[in-house]
Each structure stands twice: as C-alpha cells, then as structure tokens.
C-alpha cells in the first residue's frame, strides 16, 4: 500500500502539470495531447477516487493540497468532459470531498471549495 501511495503521489504531480498545461493553452497540439493522454488520465482519476474514498479530509488536504486546483482544471476542460466516463469519475472524486456533516475545519474547507468552485454542469449532475 505504501508503494501505491508513492506511485499515486508521483502520478499526481505529473497529472497536475499536464492539466495545468492543458488549462493554459488552447492550441491544436494541446487538444491532441489531451485526447492522447485521456485514457491514462481517466485511469489516474479512478486511482485517485479509490484513494480519496479511504481518506478523511485532513489526510486529503495533507497528501494532495492542490486537489482543488486539479479537479477545477479538469472540470473546465471540454475535451475531458466530452466523455461520460471522465465526467462520472470526476463526480465520484468530487463526492469524496463533500461531507454532509462537517466535523472539522478540513471537512468545512473541502465542502466550501467543492460546492462553490466546480462548474454549473457538474452541480446539476450532482443534484
């Protein structure tokens, strides 16, 4: 499990850089790169979901302090959102960050970000 954690953390850094690059440019090359890497990115999101659902909010914030940036940039990318599978996994990740009864400041922080930052289209799917 510890090795999986290390792998996810290094993958997280890679994908954070990729998503940031995709978010900053709208060239044909960037679009092609997004589409080329989409299956691997979807797999990363699945792994992230599996990790997030096992963590409390403080652990999430400690291990992935920029999770909000990663998910927000993903929510804004039309090439990622064009695929239902990507949307589904992204919603799963977002749901892991919502706590109906916040117990600590970490819960409150994640709730506030999740409820206020992701696009309307994603809010409608969450209900």
Explain this structure to me?
80% of the residues lie in helices and 0% in strands. It has helices at residues 2-24, 28-52, 57-63, 67-75, 78-81, 84-96, 105-117, 120-126. The model has no long low-confidence stretch (mean pLDDT 81).
The number of helical runs is 8
Hey, roughly how much beta strand do the residues contain?
under 5%
Q: Roughly what is the average pLDDT, rounded to an integer?
A: 81
Q: Write down the Rg.
A: 14 Å
Secondary structure: number of strands? 0
Measured between the Cα atoms of the first and last residue, the distance is 34 Å
Q: Main beta sheet: strand number and arrangement?
A: none
Organism: Equus caballus
Protein name: FA complementation group C
InterPro entries: FANCC
Pfam family, one: Fanconi_C
Structure keywords:
127 residues; mainly alpha; 8 helices; FA complementation group C; FANCC
Briefly characterize the structure.
With 127 residues, the chain is an all-alpha fold.
Write the layout of secondary structure elements.
Blueprint: H1 2-24, H2 28-52, H3 57-63, H4 67-75, H5 78-81, H6 84-96, H7 105-117, H8 120-126
Helix pairs in contact: 1-2, 1-4, 2-6
